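We append the chain.
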Amino acid sequence: MHDAQPQAILLADYREPTYWIDTTELTFTIHDEYTDVLSRLHVRANDRQASHGQLSLHGQMLELLSVLVDGKPLTPNDYVVDDECLHLSGVPDNALLEIVTRIYPAQNTALEGLYRSGGMYCTQCEAEGFRRITYYLDRPDVMSVFTTHIIADGQRFPTMLSNGNCVADESINGMRRVSWHDPHKKPSYLFALVVGDLVMQQDHFVTASGRTVALQIFVEPQNADKTDYALDALKRSMRWDEEVYGREYDLDVFMIVAVDDFNMGAMENKGLNIFNSSCVLANPTTATDSAYQRIEAIVAHEYFHNWSGNRVTCRDWFQLSLKEGFTVFRDACFSADMNSATVKRIEDARLMRTVQFAEDAGPMAHPVQPDSFIEIANFYTVTIYEKGAEIVGMLHKILGAQGFRKGSDVYFARHDGQAVTIDDFLVAMADANQCDLSLFRRWYKQAGTPQVTVTTHYDATQQQLQLTLRQSCPATPVPQEKLPVWIPVQLGLLDRHGNDIAIDVSPASAWNDESQVLHFQQAEQTFVFSGVRERPTLSLFRDFSAPVKVHFEQSAEELLFLWQHDSDGFNRWDAGQRLMLQWIENAQHSSFQLSEEAIQALRAIANDIESDPALITYLLTLPSEAYVAEFSEVVDPHAIHQARMTVKYAVARALVAEMKTRYHALQCHDAYAPEPRQMARRALKNLALHYWLLADPLALPTVQAQLQQADNMTDKMAALAIVLESNDTSAIEQNLAAFYHQWQHDPLVVNPWLALQASSATLATVEYIEKLLHHEAFDWRNPNKVRSVLGAFSQQALVHFHAQDGSGYRLLADAVIRLNASNPQIAARLLSPLTKYRRLIPSLASNMKRELERIMQTPALSKDVYEVVSKSLV
């Protein structure tokens, strides 16, 4: 077990550092077995803090070779070193520190700081990885101008990169020395370094002011043909940020490096982004449409950080959502503009309802601006990112597009080059729009998902609709008074033909006609709509206008009507999901049969050739088992699985003729292109094939023909997934083996192949997962492979993960214990499914809790894992 209980870090304890670091000069000398790092730091006493000459520099896993202060060598008696810091005394108010450390990148399995990935050296410094490179004030409010020198064997490592612009490239004593200078101040978490033998793919971008920026992607030679799409996405991102936010790029070069071993998706290091290979490399033969869309979004996200995160960064890690929530909102808007805005909102809402709402209801619930943490790596969460983005989105709805742009202009102009807070962001928005956002501020400080209860009363005589909204928020683990928040309710009233009725509401001050938003700001409010000549059908929270749970009793007839006729595409989908949840609930308690009205609605949607095929795909797709679980008071995974499959087969049987017709009609004879229209058609085509096979096993040859003959990975992977649901053991084994034989040398294809099996309700028993963990394609050291098997199993193959004997929980707990020592970040992130035991049926809950207790007894438990497990067991 953990020997000493780690102490929480509190927002209330924030103090500025006693010293600033004005300039940082780093020299890396790369050797086979180790790397020596010389840091030359110009430090300056903070005149707002009494330093008394005391300076403590963060450092972990470092071998200290020497320390000089203003050229004077220090002896070990002149400083104190512990596991976390180098403590210096007698430091002048202005001083030059020269520190030499030795590090061992090849032994760094945590993938934080400087480490080896295959044949290359690379860094990951956010949040606190820089302290594994050298002793430093490793905190985001210490911003410094960096110069970096890299000394290595130029023959073996022709690629030597760091932040900023390259200012020198020379030979010294038979070694190559490359120097980089970044003129923009940055915190240490944005530092980056890459050394390897890589090939470069290059393009350029001309900014709005006429400057030419070199765009460079560095990859291993075998991936040289997989960079075109990322370069194109980068150029579109740069243009979009200029047009929508007026933000122009500020260096001469923008570089991206693809790395196979990476804990995260990507990292926005100033001028030198480091990407998980799966988030940047693609070509039609190896990448699916969803991979292309992910690459587009992540490239945009990391580029947008250049302003919302780099030029203006966060003062401390409690402000993490300042950069991440804002930037996720920006990349979501970009993706909506590049593709379907409606489909993007559906995808966002599914993630919020399936993952973030669960986090809000679990032991790790925290506000978007937390008050404390033990390990900051545990707070790179859907709450910080996605809920943070939804909060920024609500602000956009409240202020309007023009008001929000005015606010962001003030924010960037006022705080350029600074490390600031969420309050600074809100003050800038309020000042620019001359409004009071103090009530809105509560969204950042309160944990939990607000719940809105809706009641209506229609008076035919007065032609009035009375709408009463009540809001509340359930208790969360840290006691906190839950106060009303400002909820923007985008809504519409539909007449019997599905047309929107003009809104005349009292009080008028609560309504924004431009955005069609009702401002709900109290614990309970009643709004009266006048001039309503017939009882309307109410369409609430259009466009997922607020991340809340809605309790609103609407009949099956009303939901069928909205599913087919609502002018808001998101609410069409939402009405369908609510209907399907009812079907799945009914199927858990009695024999299930679709009503004739439901069948006719399904067929009408399936035969709709005018609407976006991507939207039709979502309208016809059942909610996932994880989604269903979040709408269940007590979760019985086996009952949910069985009921969902019953409904799925019923839908397939009802639509077999329509699905067969749509499948053939949607065949594309054009060359593959990762563009929205083709992607939408492929998505619907493959859903049609899926339903067709479920209803008619004789469709299996058609599925196998697509798998063998398709010219793109989207159709191949979709067909393979459908084969896994065929219950034809021979076909499953043969096709899985043939696929692996063809693609075994490409991890970008093999990892999804692993994930497909690990998430399969047909295959993914505990015994099968154990075989995958011993497969030659699996590697415990590679986070992508760990996520592909263990992440997919525990989050998607729920009927097997929740095995009655607890073996699924035991398998995951064993993995967490194993990874705790080598990669604590990944170990802690795998834990999430084990934290939800309180909502399970008792027999499963006790098994799951037992595994958490076993993990807690692990010797030398990391802070990452300790925090999650200890909070889960409280």
